[in-house]
Amino acid sequence: MEERRNKIRALFAAHDADAILTFSPENRRYVTSFTGSSGYVILAKEETVLLTDSRYIEQASKQATGVKVVLHQNNWLMTLKEQLDHLSVKRLLFEQDTVSYKLFHDLTEVLPDVTLVPSSGLIEIIRQVKDAGELAIMREAAHIADQAFTHILEFLRPGLKETDVALELEVAMRKLGATGSSFDTIVASGERSAMPHGVASDRVIQTGEFVKMDYGCFYDGYASDITRTVAIGQPSPRHKEIYELVLAAQLTAVNGMRAGLTGEQADALARDVIKAGGYGDHFGHSLGHGLGLAVHESPRVAQRSSDMLKEGMVVTIEPGIYIPGFGGVRIEDDVVLTGHTCERLTLSSKDLIIL
Ligand code: GLY
Ligand code: MN
Ligand code: MN
Questions:
Q1: I want to staple 319 with a disulfide (CB 3.0 to 4.6 A). Which of 8, 28, 223, 270 is the partner?
Q2: Are residues 321 and 328 in contact, defined by beta-carbon separation less than 8 angstroms?
Q3: The pTM is what?
């Protein structure tokens, strides 16, 4: 944990800063191991301080090793000021993408002698590369999603509502040890499968259509995120054509994904295949995204992304084709970048499954 904190501290110099203030739940957990829902962290050069309230003080003291845990006053800003004074912080980084206008105003009032330095995604940059412990947890999160897929193949049949399928997936993951879903479960059937993010509705699944399922879980704080599309009954030639093209694009991207590419180059691995197949206009979203404590985090694996992919990053690979009024297909895996290749964390079959 101190190694992690030191990597973040090494980024202070570029901003001539003494500390960073964060209250993003993911960043708080990442730098302190505290899992409670409320707390403010000052990561300073010499010390890390976690301010929390009476509901969490015992838990924080147990979880946050190597961290000074402080019970904050009703107005936490007063305690913040005391601690910053104690640490002699003169220049304080804050996370400009999450601080509201009101909070910024309050901070300037309470801390007249501290220079507030805006930053973006600083801790998130260190979070991009996962260590062995994080990868072990993420393998299990992905394995739970894979097992839920095996289970749902037994359950899926015409006549069920999309919401029945979503609930079954979610319960299966919870029974397998997940603490919850990592986002609203997408089950989109028939023409609804043309909606890339068609969260499960009460539509009844019928024979002769696709069912696209995009779901995942949180396990020990880390997310998994998988999509599989299956056919209910015999698919038409058009269904098969689209499925095979998405699969070819996804396999090409998995085979070509490696450290050293930019997000844009990685995105192009799949996009070029779909464009060559004549469906470029039907693949509107990016190829993928970083995955970790948050289901969407950096790096961006997208057109015009200059983010550099590095060994140890976990990203999704999720090309799709969506045809309004007809349907759509997406296939998504989570992978960890290794030296010259990548390792899949989600291992469910990607052949067209006909139920
Ligand atoms: N379910 C959101 C995504 O795949 O990015
Ligand atoms: Mn997904
Ligand atoms: Mn995803």
A1: 270
A2: yes
A3: 0.96
First-residue to last-residue Cα distance in the chain: 47
Ligand 1, residue 183: give the atom nearest the CA: 1
DSSP summary character for residue 185: P
Q: List every span in the chain annotated with CATH 3.90.230.10.
A: 132-344
Q: Give residues whose Cβ lies within 5 Å of ion ligand 2.
A: 214, 225, 227, 332
Nearest to 332 by CA among 211, 235, 213, 217: 213
Q: Rounded distance, CA 20 to CA 329, Å?
A: 43
CB distance 211 to 199 below 8 Å = no
Residue bearing the CA closest to ligand 1, atom 1: 214
Over residues 57-73, the pLDDT tens digits come to 999 999 999 999 999 99
CA neighbor of 314 nearest in space, from 248, 222, 186, 203: 222
Summarised one tens digit per residue, pLDDT across range 1-17 is 899 999 999 999 999 99
Contacts of 52 (CB under 8 A, 6+ apart): 34, 36, 38, 39, 40, 60, 69, 70, 71, 72
CA 306, 312, 317: angle at the middle one, nearest 5?
A: 60
Q: Contact at 8 Å (CB) between 289 and 316?
A: yes
Residues of the chain with CATH 3.40.350.10: 2-127
| Contact (Cβ atoms closer than 8 angstroms) between residue 235 and residue 190 | no
Phi, psi of 207 (to 5 degrees): -70, 145
Question: How many A from CA of 3 to the centre of ligand 3?
Answer: 29
Using CA atoms, how far apart are residues 282 and 274, in angstroms rounded to an integer?
9
Residue range 132-344, CATH number: 3.90.230.10
Rounded to the nearest integer, the mean pLDDT of the chain is 97
* Bridge partners (DSSP) listed for residue 41: 22, 50
Q: Could you give the maximum distance between any two Cα atoms of the chain, in Å?
A: 70
Helix (H, G, I), strand (E, B) or coil at 166: helix
| C-alpha 201: how far from chain center | 23
| Ligand 1 nearest-atom number relative to CA 289 | 5
Domain range 2-127, CATH class: alpha beta
Q: How far is the CA of 186 from the centre of ligand 2 (A)?
A: 8
Task: Provide the CA 148 distance to its chain's centre, in angstroms.
Answer: 19
